[in-house]
Amino acid sequence: MSEHAVSIDVREIMRCLPHRYPFLLVDRVTELEPNVRIKALKNVTINEPFFAGHFEQYPVMPGVLIIEALAQAAGILAIKSQGERSENELYFFVGIDHARFKRQVVPGDQLVFEVTQMTVKRGIGKYAARALVDGQVACEAEIMCARREV
After folding, report:
1. What is its main location (predicted)?
2. What does the DSSP assignment read for 92-109?
3. N or C, which end of the chain has less CB nearby within 10 Å?
């Protein structure tokens, strides 16, 4: 186990993120190094509501939701790097560059998210993000998240 191994469960994730079912897409954080990186996971099951229409005969997780899950993991890294999120602030997904999809994600897969902080300037963080299944890259992108008072 890594020296940065942690176990942040879904209750703690829900204290960080405002997302709730069916849009909370991170189940657990397994490693966290503030201001550096996070490793998290999502267990993909046939019970996911999007599989009913994407696609009924060949269920595939929509790529946009994989990107959203990576953004949520980046948000957790940003929040935990700052300590905690105050009641009147949110972290918004504000940009994406160089997104590529390399493998389909299907029921029974476990997505592992690896997100590394690249830069943080004026409340906007840029992150290198990968989603893997069985060690194979399913998706990779550069993601930007911004901290905003609401």
Report:
1. cytoplasm
2. EEEEEEEEEE-S---TT-
3. N
The answer to whether the pTM exceeds 0.90 is yes
Write out pLDDT tens, residues 51-91. Answer: 999 998 999 999 999 999 999 999 999 999 998 888 888 89
Residue type, 64: V
Q: Catalytic annotation on 54?
A: yes
User: Tokens in use for 149?
Assistant: 């008072």
Residue type, 34: P
Cβ atoms of residues 24 and 10 within 8 Å: yes
Residue 4 in tokens:
């940065």
Alpha-carbon distance of 74 to 43, in angstroms, equals 18
Point out the catalytic residue in the list 4, 19, 54, 98: 54
Measured in degrees and rounded to the nearest 5, phi and psi for residue 143 equal: -120, 140
